[in-house]
Design a protein that fits this description.
It is a multi-pass membrane protein. With about 200 residues, this protein is α+β, with helices and mostly antiparallel strands. The protein has a single domain, classed as Neurotransmitter-gated ion-channel ligand-binding domain (Acetylcholine Binding Protein, Chain: A, Distorted Sandwich). The chain is built from one helix and twelve strands, in the order H-E-E-E-E-E-E-E-E-E-E-E-E. Strands 1, 2, 3, 4, 6, 7, 8 and 10 form an eight-stranded mixed beta sheet that branches.
Length: about 200
């Protein structure tokens, strides 16, 4: 059994190498986190240039029908509201932080667009604000995913049942910011949904 001590030695060295590598990655992420959040003001629209509005990509990444009420003419569905934008106060040089290209941090630390469902009778977010996280890229791009249950108005017609086709419009808009400050655009993941943007309003049908 002379090989046993040597085997243990190799295993120990491998364990030390993996631990050191993981610690280095964690340190780089922590350094980025401190660099981008120090002196950051989440109450101010993070746009330094006055050449145009902040562009916010908005989309519903999937659609799961939960229920339909023909009398009240409403539908309730589950979806993920995904938004992305570029925060000009969030970027960093990857070379200064060990090549770190992105970090995941609590969403409560950053400015976020106040997009809400204008056509919704009720919106229930499946995760409270203090438990949500955002992904921040080194160029300042921020990605936020908000799972939610939406009850939306929907004019229903069942005259041709069971061959009827229902079309329901869902409108999302910024509550506080004008179109001069925020420009909504359609995301690229679900082109199968009929989505349009008109005068600052995001429509899906």
């Amino acid at each position: 059994m002379a090989w046993l001590p040597k085997y243990r030695q190799v295993t120990l060295l491998l364990y030390i190498f993996v631990t050191i590598g993981a610690s280095s990655v964690f340190a780089n992420h922590f350094d980025v986190y401190k660099a981008i959040t120090t002196d950051y003001d989440k109450n101010v629209l993070p746009v330094r240039s006055i050449s145009g509005p902040m562009v916010v990509s908005v989309e519903l990444t999937y659609f799961y029908l939960f229920s339909m009420d023909q009398v009240q003419e409403t539908i309730t569905f589950h979806t993920d509201l995904e938004m992305s934008w570029k925060d000009e106060n969030m970027g960093w040089k990857e070379s200064k932080f060990g090549g770190t290209s992105k970090v995941v941090i609590p969403s409560s630390l950053l400015w976020k667009p106040d997009i809400y469902v204008m056509s919704g009778l009720s919106v229930e977010y499946m995760m409270p604000e203090e438990q949500r996280f955002v992904t921040v890229l080194s160029d300042g791009t921020v990605r936020l995913l908000k799972p939610c249950l939406i009850t939306n108005r929907c004019s229903l017609s069942v005259k041709t049942f069971p061959y009827d086709i229902q079309t329901c419009s869902i409108s999302l808009v910024s509550r506080m910011y004008s179109t001069d400050q925020i420009q909504l655009i359609i995301g690229k993941k679900r082109r199968s949904l009929n989505a349009t943007v008109d005068d600052g309003h995001f429509y899906v049908s």
